[in-house]
Design brief:
29% of the residues lie in helices and 27% in strands. With 211 residues, it is of the alpha/beta class. It has one domain: CoaB-like (Rossmann fold, 3-Layer(aba) Sandwich). The longest helix is centred in the C-terminal third of the chain and has 20 residues, at 190-209.
Length: 211
């Protein structure tokens, strides 16, 4: 398979030096890239700014903003068999980016934020015979929110985890089907979970698409 993997955070700039972002380490996505390379697959990694090093042998595209992630994914996805979307995308960006650096004045400032593009939903609308595995990091009403994301983004399954995964070496995930059934549950290191999730994709998700 040729697999598109998105990983790490995106950044949305307020001015030329300050940005909105999140604490994603990119470790889950990089673990999946490593597992896929080791299993003999082609990997196209679209990554936000992280401290991880990509595995040897994968095609790497580095991005910062959500729009850059969108542009790369829309270009690359048609040439892949599927996508595993682990990237922690900023949901909001400043309506306007200020040129230069905002100067401190001692007074409050107000930022007007607008929603960023829903990259995975766009890929879901274009997927045809390709498969999509989404990730949902949820803290409130997790299962219902994960299923809402699965349906909105036209995913073949979604991997539900919680905020304890951020920056951690370990994770605990539940993989949900479009019928809201639990396909599998995994606990352990992110590398171990990546290897098990990849096998599930090979046998269940990709295998179904090929029938």
């Amino acid at each position: 398979m040729r697999i598109l993997i998105t990983a790490g955070p995106t950044r949305e700039y307020i001015d030329d030096v300050r940005f909105l972002s999140n604490a994603s380490s990119g470790r889950m996505g990089y673990s999946l890239a490593t597992a896929a390379i080791q299993a003999g697959h082609e990997v196209v990694l679209v990554t936000g700014p992280v401290e991880q090093s990509p595995p040897e042998g994968c095609e790497v595209h580095r991005i910062e903003t959500t729009d850059q992630l969108r542009q790369q994914c829309l270009t690359l996805f048609p040439h892949c068999d599927g996508v595993i979307a682990t990237a922690a995308v900023c949901d909001y960006r400043p309506r306007a980016r200020i040129t230069g650096k905002i100067t401190k004045t001692g007074q409050p400032i107000v930022l007007e934020l607008v929603e960023t593009s829903d990259v995975l939903a766009e890929l879901g609308a274009l997927k045809d015979d390709r498969w999509i595995v989404g990730f949902a990091l949820e803290s409130q009403d997790p299962r219902n929110n994960a299923m809402r994301k699965l349906r909105m983004k036209n995913c073949d399954c979604i991997v539900l985890n919680d905020t304890s995964a951020i920056g951690s070496l370990t994770n605990s995930v539940e993989i949900l089907s479009p019928d809201a059934e639990t396909i599998a549950s995994y606990q352990g290191t992110k590398q171990d979970i990546a290897e098990r999730l990849l096998k599930l994709i090979e046998t269940t998700i990709h295998g179904t698409k090929q029938k």
